[in-house]
């Protein structure tokens, strides 16, 4: 009985051992698996975070690099802190000024070059006009000193300066008209000299000269009409002034014009108008005094 009981105890002990031994690998494997899983999760977590961090860093750098040229361009376009304040103010004023006003102001200040031919003609007309005006002044002084004086330009009953000088039309402004030509033609001579010296006068100067010469041309027309139809006599020195004044007007007008088709047409048409005006004056004087002209043939 005792031996049988010992055998049973040994069997129980031996049977428990395999069970215990069999449980050990399972535990070991579970421990090992948990370690592998933990290490894998940890490693993958670290790797993922590292990859994600690196991608975020690279993408952040890429975005900043891509944005940098735009910001650089904006900075390059903006005036720097070292830029002069006058330049910034000028640019701002130019941006705020209307285009029409800027172009108009620039057009008035634009320096214009005059051709050699126009300069020579203007200078010649100024000299001829000044000589004729000076002669008229001297003749008028002589006539004032001696009422019986016969001026050198009194050629016949029609071509007679003395007859014209004694009329009230010859003193339209309360003094003799002859003195008006002295300062006027002196300015024209100065203009001709400057233009011939290749000085570029601004457009506003030519516009002013055109307006002043226009007033002189209107006065010439008045005197021509009075001489032909009211005084019934022609003054040779006065007719010299009549001849050069419209030429000066045309030259000044052509120079004052801007660019474009209309300006070109006006430049070409000005000479045509001048020729027509000469023809009208000649026809008026010819028809009015034909009774005398025909006696000369």
Q: Can you walk through the features of this model?
A:
With 297 residues, the protein is mainly alpha-helical. It has a domain at 112-296: Up-down Bundle (de novo design (two linked rop proteins)). Helix content is 78%, strand content 1%. It is built from 10 helices and 2 strands. The chain has a two-stranded antiparallel ribbon with strand order 1-2. Helix 7 packs antiparallel against helix 8 (236-256). The chain starts with a helix and ends with a helix.
Topology, pairings included?
Layout: H1 2-77, H2 85-96, H3 99-109, E1 111-112, H4 116-145, H5 161-165, H6 181-196, E2 201-202, H7 203-231, H8 236-256, H9 261-288, H10 290-293
Antiparallel strand pairs: 1-2
Estimate the mean pLDDT confidence.
Answer: 75
- The named CATH superfamily of one domain: VKOR domain
Question: So what's the CATH class of one domain?
Answer: Mainly Alpha
CATH arch. level architecture of one domain:
Up-down Bundle
The secondary structure category is: mainly alpha
Terminal CA distance reads 193 Å
Q: What is the radius of gyration? A: 54 Å
What does the largest sheet look like?
A: 2 strands, antiparallel
Cross-sheet strand order for the largest sheet: 1-2
Provide the succession of SSEs: HHHEHHHEHHHH
Residue runs with pLDDT of under 50 for 5 or more positions: 1-9, 11-102
Instruction: Count helical runs.
Output: 10
Observed structural traits:
297 residues, mainly alpha, de novo design (two linked rop proteins), two-stranded antiparallel sheet, 78% helix, disordered N terminus
């Amino acid at each position: 009985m005792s031996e049988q009981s010992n055998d049973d105890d040994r069997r129980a002990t031996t049977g428990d051992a395999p069970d215990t031994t069999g449980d050990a690998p399972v535990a070991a494997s579970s421990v090992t698996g948990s370690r592998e899983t933990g290490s894998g999760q940890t490693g993958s977590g670290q790797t993922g975070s590292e990859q994600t961090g690196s991608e975020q860093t690279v993408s952040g750098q890429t975005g900043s690099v891509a944005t940098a040229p735009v910001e650089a361009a904006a900075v390059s376009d903006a005036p720097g802190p070292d830029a002069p304040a006058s330049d910034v103010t000028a640019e701002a004023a130019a941006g705020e000024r209307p285009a029409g006003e800027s172009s108009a102001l620039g057009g008035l200040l634009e320096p214009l070059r005059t051709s050699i031919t126009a300069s020579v003609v203007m200078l010649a007309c100024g000299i001829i006009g000044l000589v004729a005006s000076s002669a008229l002044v001297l003749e008028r002084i002589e006539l004032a000193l001696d009422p019986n004086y016969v001026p050198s330009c009194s050629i016949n009953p029609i071509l007679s300066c003395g007859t014209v000088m004694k009329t009230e039309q010859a003193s339209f402004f309360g003094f003799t008209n002859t003195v008006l030509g002295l300062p006027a033609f002196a300015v024209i001579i100065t203009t001709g000299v400057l233009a011939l010296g290749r000085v570029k006068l601004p457009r506003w100067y030519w516009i002013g000269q055109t307006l002043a010469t226009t007033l002189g041309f209107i006065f010439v027309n008045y005197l021509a009409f009075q001489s032909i139809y009211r005084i019934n006599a022609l003054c040779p020195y006065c007719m010299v002034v009549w001849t050069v004044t419209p030429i000066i007007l045309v030259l000044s007008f052509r120079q004052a014009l801007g660019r474009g088709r209309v300006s070109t047409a006006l430049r070409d048409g000005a000479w045509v108008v001048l020729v027509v005006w000469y023809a009208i004056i000649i026809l008026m004087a010819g028809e009015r005094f034909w009774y005398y002209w025909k006696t000369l043939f």
